[in-house]
């Protein structure tokens, strides 16, 4: 399976006119690092309120169904990002967006990312405040 994936990526890289990725050019994110980043993103501040959310959703069965539907969209997005990365020949998310969508959309993406970080910080503060009040 891995060999087929490598073959597909090498065919895509050879089809494009761009030079292949230079692995030694900069730091790379390992598999474990990517797994921890994805888990942190998926759980986030909501981990503190899982019991409340499950109760509001109608029980564990409803909550797991919603999570499975969300998983489909998450995996689809990661597949699209991986494909775009292999076509563009870029290593980072920001570079892929700038290469595939253009510099204006790349700037908009960076602004949205900073705004997202700010809102995550606010969410953590609200949830911690709610926990302290209880």
Major sheet size, sense and barrel closure: none
Radius of gyration: 19 Å
Compressed to H and E, one letter per element, the order equals HHHHHH
Global structural class: mainly alpha
Tally of strands: 0
Average pLDDT metric: 75
Q: How large is the count of helical segments?
A: 6
Distance between the termini: 51 Å
Characterization of this structure:
- The chain is an all-alpha fold.
- It has 6 helices and no strands.
- The longest helix is centred in the C-terminal third of the chain and has 31 residues, at 103-133.
- It is globular.
Q: What would a concise description of this structure say?
A:
The chain has helices at 2-15, 31-43, 50-57, 60-88, 93-101, 103-133. It is mostly helical and 134 residues long. The radius of gyration is 19 Å and the shape is globular.
List keywords for this structure.
transmembrane helix; single chain; about 130 residues; Sodium-coupled neutral amino acid transporter 8a; membrane; mainly alpha; about 80% helix
List the helices and strands and how they pair.
Layout: H1 2-15, H2 31-43, H3 50-57, H4 60-88, H5 93-101, H6 103-133
Helix pairs in contact: 4-5, 5-6
